[in-house]
Design a protein that fits this description.
The chain is built from 7 helices and 18 strands. By secondary structure, the protein is an alpha/beta fold.
Length: 423
């Protein structure tokens, strides 16, 4: 499917869902739960089936890319028929209602796209939020020691706090009526599900489950550092040094700071990743990484963060890149939603909408409605926490009062016994 076109024009309205329609969704990441939540919100019954659900169970699984997303709303490493600027605009517009809704962990921050090498006369500032060329920016920008930023731009960017956002999505999905089953799915099961539609959000799993040889596993590393502060840093950056062919970037979270910027092409063979190696490797926390992820970021952050190598935790995951491009289309009773590469979070709401339009009518303001639902779930959860805290305080007070009464009663009894003995 061309994501610039709506599936509504391709589906006979007579075949669309009613409240009795059921969808089975394969996948445990952000595409699956976003699609499931949107469908449940539209009164379509769903169930998620996955071996692992992102941020909910067990250790991080490299093939569940949502566990590793830095989660800025800026789509990268994804192939679509849509012009880049239009794709970015639609991604930003889809998350705007979430940013504007209290209780939803989406914020806006300043992001720097910086180059030490001049980019030439063809370089233009893209039409992004509050975007302007770095030359017209009056404040200091990140730069390496002894180096000068020669080109780039500054903009505003939405940032999703994934450790809060993913559990919130799953909770909202369950409260909307969705169910979840944790198990693996085999190729032989495809076609054997009893639901009206099978929705494929399996990412890289589509290579084997749906015989798609165009899927690739793009390995990316995340370096995490603890960040003890009342709020996350108010900026992020994507920085390309002159002596490297690729950039390094930094994104802040509430409790950590994330360094990344590696894109190593490969595949998963018999459970092991086989692919490119870093050009300038180093070993950190027992993992081989491109050394620029540490050295460049350490230099750029020298005025904001001091840390040793031992402070850094390293993990890696696989972006589900599809050489044939993002696939959101219907084939019989199977609806595909995969191949998002490094744009999984950015495209999650749009892809959920495009997918849902194959099943039922989707209102124009559905993202506002989803934002309201997420905010309500978070407020309800906060009230429940506050109620639990009040209960704990009441129990503690009761225990203190009971203890004081027992002490007073014991003293009185001791005095009575002493007086009786003296008498």
């Amino acid at each position: 499917m061309n994501p610039a076109q709506s599936p509504k024009s391709q589906v006979d309205p007579i075949t669309r869902a009613n409240v009795n329609t059921e969808c089975t969704i394969i996948g445990g990441g952000i595409q699956a739960v976003s699609t499931g939540l949107l469908l449940e919100h539209l009164d379509v019954g769903t169930r998620l089936i996955a071996e692992d659900f992102a941020y909910l169970n067990g250790a991080d699984v490299p093939t569940v890319a949502s566990n590793y997303a830095s989660a800025s709303i800026y789509p990268v490493a994804v192939e679509t028929d849509m012009a880049d600027d239009e794709l970015v605009r639609q991604c930003e517009e889809s998350f705007r209602p979430l940013y504007e809704t209290a209780g939803v962990p989406v914020r806006k921050q300043t992001h720097y796209y910086l180059y030490e090498q001049p980019q030439g006369e063809a370089f233009t500032v893209p039409p992004r939020m509050d975007a302007r060329h770095v030359d017209s920016y009056q404040k200091p920008v990140p730069s390496r020691s002894g180096e000068t930023v020669s080109d780039g731009y500054v903009c505003s960017e939405y940032m999703v706090e994934m450790p809060e956002y993913m559990p919130l999505l799953f909770e909202a999905y369950r409260r909307a009526g969705g169910t979840m089953t944790r198990r693996s799915v085999s190729h032989t099961e495809i076609g054997g599900f009893s639901s009206d539609y099978l929705v494929n959000c399996s990412g890289y799993g589509s290579r084997t489950l749906f015989d798609d040889p165009s899927m690739r596993a793009i390995k990316g590393h995340i370096l995490e550092l603890p960040h003890n502060s009342d709020s996350p840093l108010e900026f992020s950056y994507t920085y390309t040094p002159r002596e490297y062919s690729h950039y390094a970037y930094m994104y802040p979270r509430k409790e950590t700071i994330v360094f990344d910027g590696s894109y190593l092409a490969g595949d998963i063979v018999d459970g092991d990743w086989v692919g490119e190696s870093p050009n300038d490797p180093m070993t950190l926390d027992g993992v081989e990484i491109p050394e620029r992820l540490l050295t460049v970021n350490r230099d750029l952050m020298r005025n904001h963060l001091q840390f040793s190598d031992d402070d850094v935790a390293v993990k890696y995951g696989y972006r589900p890149y599809r050489e044939d491009g993002l696939r959101v289309e219907q084939s019989g009773d199977i609806i595909h939603n995969y191949g998002h590469g490094g744009a999984g979070v950015s495209l999650s709401l749009l892809s959920a909408r495009w997918t849902s339009e194959y099943v039922t009518d989707v209102p124009d303001d559905v993202f506002q409605q989803i934002a309201g639902r997420l905010g309500q779930v978070n407020r309800t959860r906060d009230r429940a926490r506050a109620g639990a805290l009040d209960t704990d305080c009441l129990v503690a007070c009761q225990r203190v009062a009971a203890t004081k009464w027992c002490l007073a009663w014991t003293r009185r009894l001791s005095m009575d016994i002493r007086h009786e003995f003296e008498a």
